[in-house]
Amino acid sequence: xxxxxxxxxxxxxxxxxxxxxxxxxxxxxxxxxxxxxxxxxxxxxxxxxxxxxxxxxxxxxxxxxxxxxxxxxxxxxxxxxxxxxxxxxxxxxxxxxxxxxxxxxxxxxxxxxxxxxxxxxxxxxxxxxxxxxxxxxxxxxxxxxxxxxxxxxxxxxxxxxxxxxxxxxxxxxxxxxxxxxxxxxxxxxxxxxxxxxxxxxxxxxxxxxxxxxxxxxxxxxxxxxxxxxxxxx
Length: 233
Description:
This is TIGR02453 family protein. By secondary structure, the chain is of the alpha+beta class.
């Protein structure tokens, strides 16, 4: 086996306490416990995640200068730990994962629904990638139109081995040819791809590099989506 290459990227700010806290939160997902452990949440989970976001800003810029890694504790790349339970049968108040979104600068205000990169950290379920999630109807139409107008470019993404996921309609949407060679992908309502990580990989010294590699793998899809929406990449 060849020796492992020396790592030159940013160091991993996540320690063993990161997943321990998330596991404990899953076992005690209630407001009283969280309030009693809020300082622990900030020290062991939130703040290391913010440092990871900051460390990722350089690798992200090497992919594209049009995306943002914002390490602010509120209003930045980090998603809130609090769940919106208004329309959910699950009334547990807290998410049992931490996640960050790296939006396009042109869509920063509503960036979660625009092309971007994403990082999700959860014991046994971590991943990173990029794409377009729950776009507005106009954006979704533009992506479908781009697929039909440039089927060779879209097929090249598929042939590269990129697994493109998302919710899908049962039928090709109205206004599009059911016999189009990309008809199955025209049914998609989301367009994203991801790379999974084991707990050991998340804790490894080179994890920032691994996140960058996952986003680099997703970048051809993100680039296609940006062009479809008239955004620079």
